[in-house]
Each structure stands twice: as structure tokens, then as C-alpha cells.
Amino acid sequence: MNIEELYHFLFETMPGIGILVGGGLVISIIVCFILERKTRKQFKNHEKTEDDWSLFDDDEDES
Fold first, then answer.
1. How far apart are CA 4 and CA 44, in angstroms?
2. pTM of the model as a whole
3. Where does the sequence pass through the membrane (predicted)?
4. Contacts of 17 (CB under 8 A, 6+ apart)
5. Which DSSP string corresponds to 21-32?
6. Phi and psi of 52, rounded to 5°?
7. Is the pLDDT of residue 61 over 60?
8. Of residues 54 and 42, which shows the higher confidence score?
9. pLDDT tens track for 11-29
10. Strands (E), 1-63
11. Hey, CA dihedral for 16, 17, 23, 26, is it positive or negative?
12. Burial level of 10, CB count in 10 A (0-12/13-18/19+)?
């Protein structure tokens, strides 16, 4: 398989575009996982306070 065939497959066919999108998602998930682990190692002794932000925090009970 030469470069022209590979280019045609990846950028001009639906399965090739699917592979590019899927590969991008997998790479993004791996990078996010690695960076999250590094952040948790760096801030492992962090004590929670009232001002801490949480993804799962319910804003409705602040009223």
C-alpha cells in the first residue's frame, strides 16, 4: 500500500474517516487519563473546603 492509497482510504472514504475520528477519540481519552492521574498524584493531600468545585455538585441547593 503506497502513500496515495493510504491518503485516499483515510480522507476520502467513510471507513477511513471513521478510523481517524475513532483514533482521535482514543488518543484524547488516553491523554486525559494520564493527565488526571498526574494531577491526583500532585494534589493527593488536598483537603476539601466549602469553595471546592465539583462536577457533580447540585447548584439548586444554594438558593
1. 50
2. 0.64
3. 16-35
4. 10, 11
5. HHHHHHHHHHHH
6. -65, 140
7. no
8. 42
9. 999 999 999 999 999 999 9
10. none
11. negative
12. middle
Q: Which residue has the cell 498526574?
A: 38
Number of C-beta neighbours around residue 9 at 10 A: 14
**Residue 52 is which amino acid?**
D
> What single-letter amino acid sits at 34?
I
Q: Which residue has the cell 486525559?
A: 32
Q: Which residue has the cell 491526583?
A: 40
Show the cell assigned to 49: 473546603
- At 60, list the grid cell: 439548586
Q: How far is CA 1 from CA 4, 8, 9, in A?
A: 8, 11, 10
